[in-house]
Specification:
The chain is of the alpha/beta class and about 300 residues long. It has 13 helices and 12 strands.
Length: about 300
């Protein structure tokens, strides 16, 4: 995921302004008294995405009087776990990158997070509602979205194009089933090589929710959509046998190594897929095939301001 720098700068700028005001006004005495030196301003930030080094370096050049301390984590899961521990210990950073999979309800209800409403209203251009909604809780915005991804379907081009005589139609799950079934019918090398199977990455709740996502729907209708998505999943796994059960941790590598013809994953995996496939085979990607969803459900990265100790 490439960082969208303008919302990041927006948040950093607001924090920097507060730090500078504090530094300039700290220890203000009468005109006859000596003014003690202002304490150095510092800014601590925890992140898990790549690309922050360039942003922080540029920010430091604009605000050399602020010491930016950045700590990187391997994943959003690891960061969130340690963030909760730091909050309990009164040692939280001032800013932290969070993922929409966890949301902000826990941080907001415990009083650990600061509302981001002023930063969001200052954003130009305006934030897309689908992204800002991920961090909205009790009619308040609690984090600034700066990047994200959507679920997509990666597929090998050559075998499916050759068998179908044209580029495969993958707009619906029935079309996906029909395309994969072509590679499961002997004779042919496609059967032995596993081109007739599909792998699905480990973010299963996100993919399930995406298959039934209707932003303005709730109650019985939403529950029925969810049941329908689970039924599709059961069919693909146990009846059609187009997906192997419990193989999600190796989904991307199975597709990259030629053990599957299709792969459901995040759009931000594209650079990784391209790098590791290299020139071994040609592939393409399509939007998540239609089932019951009415809109895309994005995975969003946001920056939250915290009440640090």
């Amino acid at each position: 995921m490439k960082l969208r720098t303008w919302p990041v700068w927006l948040v950093l700028g607001c924090i920097a302004a507060g730090a500078l005001v504090y530094g300039l006004t700290h220890g203000k005495l009468s005109e006859d008294e000596l003014k003690p030196p202002a304490p150095p301003a510092s800014l601590s930030i925890w992140v898990y995405s790549k690309g922050w080094e360039d942003v922080v370096r540029a920010f430091g050049q604009s605000y050399p009087q602020i010491d930016v301390q950045i700590r990187s984590f391997r994943s959003y899961e690891q960061l969130y776990t340690e963030l909760l521990a730091s909050i309990s210990a009164g040692a939280a950073p001032q800013l932290a990158e969070i993922h929409s999979f966890y949301g902000v309800a826990q941080l907001a209800t415990t009083g650990a997070a600061l509302p981001a409403g002023d930063v969001l209203t200052a954003g130009k251009p305006m934030f897309l509602p689908a992204f800002s909604a991920a961090f909205r809780y009790q009619d308040k915005d609690w984090a600034v979205p700066f990047g994200g991804s959507v679920p997509v379907l990666y597929y090998r081009e050559e075998p499916f194009k050759r068998m179908a005589g044209r580029a495969p139609a993958l707009g619906t799950w029935e079309e996906v089933r029909q395309t994969l079934s072509l590679a499961k019918e002997p004779p042919g090398e496609e059967v032995s090589k596993g081109y007739g199977t599909m792998t699905v990455d480990k973010e299963l709740p996100w993919f399930w929710a995406s298959l039934s996502y209707a932003p303005k729907e709730s109650g019985a209708s939403a529950a029925e959509r969810t049941r329908s998505a689970l039924e599709l999943w059961r069919n693909l796994t146990h009846e059609s046998k187009l997906m192997k059960p419990l193989q999600h941790d190796t989904a991307a590598s199975d597709f990259i190594n030629g053990k599957a013809g299709m792969y459901v994953g995040s759009s931000d995996k594209l650079p990784t897929v391209e790098r590791y496939i290299g020139g071994k085979f040609s592939f393409d990607l399509a939007k998540l095939p239609a089932w019951k969803q009415e809109a895309l459900l994005p995975s969003v990265h946001g920056l939250v301001a915290l009440k640090s100790g």
